[in-house]
């Protein structure tokens, strides 16, 4: 796996490019926005510098990894890749357009991977000329830190495509699990969305504070991070959108985003990347509970509760 193309240079795309280049592959990072590519390269360099400072890699290895990354604004730069990884916005039409374009550019043997966390692979693959070569490679954020990659078979995904995707992810230092049935949210996203939704409902209803709920999950269940801190790290907008995708596919009320999550997205309080979410990251690195944004009592401006589970919203 010497030639890899990554389409999309956001948080996930840049992270995938970083771990892939550290694994020894040449990476072409593609985005139509030159500014986004500049920011991605700066973010990758900063991340590698932190790895060097923490002695997780050497300065020589970091420089070599950077040298293996090239950038391009034209998707045709993916033509020579052995695997092309799509990491664009989590909208089906956007992803399908990328796969239509890739199908006309790459060789018939090139594996086409999608980094979606919730959209069924079969729906994305419907836009590809050879749907059997399309596979889900769900990396976790932040990609350089998280060890898991969830591999997902679409209805037509071949054994060869899955094996190539596994080799690619393992070369990037990831441990893989395989989802054999292509359902919205796969396995991991369904689990975390169900947990975050219920956690948000408990906080919204004034049952428990966000801090205490996260502490309970860490100390009671052995989670390294509570579900609401996880939502802040991932992005509350990303979580809300993922739950919507699962709900649209399953009509299961437990996946309908709680009103609290929807209000937070509307207000721009979407987690660490905005400086505020369930916790405030503007001044303290550890975070402080924000009662003004996610209050749970009527005296603090409680938001209306959503339809409860087992009754369709």
From TrEMBL:
It comes from the Bacteria. Its EC number is 1.1.1.35. Transmembrane segments: none annotated. Pathway: Lipid metabolism; butanoate metabolism. The keyword 4Fe-4S does not apply. GO terms for molecular function: (3S)-3-hydroxyacyl-CoA dehydrogenase (NAD+) activity. It is an enzyme of class 1 (oxidoreductase). Residues 185-281 form the 3-hydroxyacyl-CoA dehydrogenase C-terminal domain. The lineage of its organism: Bacteria, Bacillati, Actinomycetota, Actinomycetes, Glycomycetales. Keywords: Oxidoreductase. It comes from Glycomyces mayteni. The keyword Oxidoreductase applies. Residues 3-182 form the 3-hydroxyacyl-CoA dehydrogenase NAD binding domain. InterPro entries: 3-OHacyl-CoA_DH (IPR022694), 3-OHacyl-CoA_DH_CS (IPR006180), 3-OHacyl-CoA_DH_NAD-bd (IPR006176), 3HC_DH_C (IPR006108), 6-PGluconate_DH-like_C_sf (IPR008927), 6PGD_dom2 (IPR013328), NAD(P)-bd_dom_sf (IPR036291). Belongs to the 3-hydroxyacyl-CoA dehydrogenase family. It holds the Pfam family 3HCDH_N. This is 3-hydroxyacyl-CoA dehydrogenase family protein.
């Amino acid at each position: 796996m010497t030639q890899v193309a990554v389409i999309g240079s956001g948080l996930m795309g840049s992270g995938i490019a970083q771990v892939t280049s550290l694994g020894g592959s040449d990476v072409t990072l593609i985005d139509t926005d030159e500014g986004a590519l500049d920011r991605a390269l700066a973010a990758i360099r900063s991340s590698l510098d932190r790895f060097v400072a923490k002695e997780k890699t050497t300065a020589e290895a970091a420089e070599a990894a950077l040298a293996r990354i090239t950038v391009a604004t034209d998707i045709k730069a993916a033509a020579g890749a052995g695997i092309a990884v799509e990491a664009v916005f989590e909208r089906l039409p956007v992803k399908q357009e990328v796969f239509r374009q890739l199908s006309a550019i790459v060789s018939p043997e090139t594996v086409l991977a999608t980094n979606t966390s919730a959209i069924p692979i079969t729906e994305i693959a419907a836009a590809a000329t050879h749907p059997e070569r399309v596979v889900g490679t769900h990396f976790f954020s932040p990609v350089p830190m998280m060890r898991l990659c969830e591999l997902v078979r679409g209805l037509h995904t071949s054994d060869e495509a899955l094996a190539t995707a596994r080799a690619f992810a393992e070369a990037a230092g990831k441990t893989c699990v395989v989802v054999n049935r292509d359902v919205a949210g796969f396995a991991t996203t369904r689990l975390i969305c169900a947990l975050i939704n219920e956690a948000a409902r408990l906080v919204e209803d004034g049952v428990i504070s966000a801090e205490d709920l996260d502490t309970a999950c860490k100390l009671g269940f052995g989670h390294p991070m509570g579900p609401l801190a996880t939502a802040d790290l991932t992005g509350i907008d990303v979580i809300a959108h993922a739950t919507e995708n699962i709900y649209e596919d399953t009509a299961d009320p437990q996946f309908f985003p709680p009103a609290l999550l929807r209000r937070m997205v509307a207000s721009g309080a979407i987690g660490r990347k905005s400086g505020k979410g369930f916790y405030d990251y503007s001044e303290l690195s550890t975070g402080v509970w924000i009662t003004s944004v996610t209050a749970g009592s009527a005296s603090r401006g409680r938001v209306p509760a959503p339809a409860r589970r087992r009754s369709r919203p």
